[in-house]
Structures are given as C-alpha cells and as structure tokens.
Design goal:
CATH topology of the largest domain: Rossmann fold
CATH architecture of the largest domain: 3-Layer(aba) Sandwich
Number of strands: 14
Structural class: alpha/beta
Order of helices and strands: EEEHEEHEHHHEHEHEEHEEEEH
Radius of gyration: 21 Å
CATH class of the largest domain: Alpha Beta
Bound molecules: adenosine-5'-diphosphate
Number of domains: 3
Number of helices: 9
Oligomer: single chain
Strand content: 25-35%
Helix content: 25-40%
Largest sheet: 6 strands, mixed
Shape: globular
C-alpha cells in the first residue's frame, strides 16, 4: 500500500489552520511514530488520512488516485483508533466487535474477532459488558476493533493512553509485529514507544513537519547539544532547558539541551527524548 500526502493544508471553519502544507509518502511496510506538542495537528492529519475530513488544499493519494475516490478500498483496508472512541456500553466485548466487523464487512468475522480478542488479551472478557470494564480494558477494546481483520493501514491516535507499563510493552510488540506487512501510523506522547518500535518518526509542530526520518537521524542531529551539569547552581536553572533533574547529596544534577553547551556541562549521548526536546526548543526560540 502506498499513500502520498501532497502539500496538504487544513483550515477549520473557525479559521484555525491546523496543517500548513505538509507532504510525506507513507509506504508499506513501516511503523511511523507521529509526535508533537498538543495542538500540533496530529489528530487532524489522522482524520484526513481516514477521509474523515477533506483537506482545504493539496491532496492525499492512495496509489495513484485521490483518497476520496477510493473510499471503498480505504474502508476495506483501514483500522482506525481515534483519540476519543465511543464504545457501546451495553454490549459485551464480543457483541461490540461483531458489530464493528459487520460495519467493516469482514468475512469470517468469528475467527477475526477471536484473533483480535486474543491479541489484545480480551478473550476472558468476551461476554463482559463494556460498561463494567476498566479504562485500560476499554482502550484494549478500541485497539481490538482497529486491528480486526488485519487491515493494511493501521492508524492509531494515542493507543497506549491509559495502559499500564506491561500492557504498553505488549501492545508495542503487537504493533511492531503488525507493521511487518502494513503501514502503522501511531501518534503518541510517549517517546519510549517510538524509540522501541518505530523505524520512522514524523515530528509535527504548529501544523508543519519539523522532522521526518529515522530515530537514529534525530538523535544524531542533537549530538553535542545535550549535557550533564553535576552541581547546577540554583540561580542558573532558569536559563537552561532542563530535560531531567535529580536531587543528589552533592547538589542538583541536571540534564540540559542547548544550542551551545556551557563549559560547566559535560556532553553526553542524546536519547530520543533529548533530541525531540532539542528540536522543539530550537523551533520555539525562533
Ligand atoms: P493534536 O492532535 O496534535 O493535539 P489537533 O489536530 O487536534 O492537534 O489540533 C490542531 C489544531 O487545530 C489545534 O489548534 C486545535 O485547537 C485545532 N482544531 C482541532 N479540531 C478542530 C475543530 N474541529 N475546529 C476548530 N479547530 C480545531
């Protein structure tokens, strides 16, 4: 599957420009992390990709044709978890997934539902009414409906919100396996999720793409801009962009990102989170 986002702009009816002309090819197989501050335009981009919104300018192609002319093909190949997902509280987990399978026109839905429940660890809740599930279990039902029928395009808007660390790791592994033969686009605030599974990271900021490349490339760009200050003078803290701060017996130990490291800082290898913070801080200084 090939999707091409071409100079896409999106302005809402209240005049808010959420995307300001972005372009990116999405090719199978890949697992792409979409990250950026709140309001950057991530959810808007995802809604455009599932044809839930139409771009104000530019276009999105599925293969060689506009996405909107291929709605049937898109629907058959799409799994989507939006940020706020309405579940039918009075249905059981199985009934809900059966309903979603019917909407998606999935053949042999029984086997597909059993598989999706097994992969999201929900088999034991098959006959449980959704209203009695915990927040994390409900999130898993949302993920289960998205992966139903093994879609070729999986779009997940903050899928790991509300999950405990073990569940998050399980899902990361599940998404990584799924991405072997499809496009998985995952928006998240959790940089560790991106670091451990994504082969590509797209950073959105105020409706533009600040970075599109591999996590390694992003880390490389921050090399020399991350440092440790073992005993941070209290009066200097304000002046630095601090990504970690630890109170120790010797004093306050800080990890900072800066265009130019001060002499009191010792350069260290950036993590992906440092590199992300460096890029965003640089942009916000402009
Ligand atoms: P993100 O998912 O990165 O937090 P969004 O795509 O939700 O960002 O929002 C991008 C911008 O568009 C924000 O400024 C948001 O307030 C605005 N926005 C989102 N949805 C709407 C809408 N339906 N009407 C008007 N403005 C919107």
């Amino acid at each position: 599957m090939n999707i091409s986002i071409q100079n896409v702009e999106m302005t809402y009816s209240n005049g808010k420009q959420a995307l300001q002309g972005i372009s990116a090819p999405l090719q199978s197989p890949s697992l792409i992390g979409l990250v950026g501050p709140n309001g950057a335009g991530k959810s808007t981009l995802m809604k455009l990709l599932v044809a839930g919104l139409l771009p104000t300018k530019g276009e999105i192609l599925l293969g060689d044709s506009p996405l909107i002319s291929k709605e049937k093909e898109l629907k058959e190949n799409l799994g989507y978890l939006p940020q706020s997902f309405g579940l039918y509280d009075e249905l059981t987990v199985y009934q809900f997934l059966d309903y979603m399978a019917a909407l998606k026109g999935i053949p042999q839905s029984r086997a597909a539902i059993e598989k999706a429940m097994a992969e999201t660890n929900l088999s034991q809740y098959k006959r449980t009414r959704i209203r009695t599930l915990s927040g994390g279990q409900r999130q898993r039902v949302g993920i289960a409906q998205a992966i139903l029928g093994n879609p070729k395009l999986l779009i997940l808007d903050e899928p790991t919100v509300g999950l405990d660390p073990e569940e998050r790791i399980n899902f990361r592994n599940l998404f990584s396996k799924a991405a072997q033969d499809k496009i998985v686009l995952l928006s998240t605030h959790i940089i560790e999720d991106v670091q451990s599974i994504c082969n590509r990271i797209i950073i959105l900021h105020c409706g533009i793409i600040l970075f599109d490349g591999s996590p390694q490339e992003l880390i490389l760009a921050a090399q020399g801009h991350v440092g440790m200050i073992d005993q941070m003078p209290a009066e200097k803290e304000e002046g630095y962009h601090i990504t970690a701060r630890l109170n120790t017996l010797k004093g306050v130990c800080c990890r900072i990102v800066a265009e130019e490291l001060p002499p009191i800082a010792q350069a260290v290898d950036p993590t992906l989170e440092d590199a992300y913070m460096y890029l965003i801080a640089k942009e916000e200084k402009k």
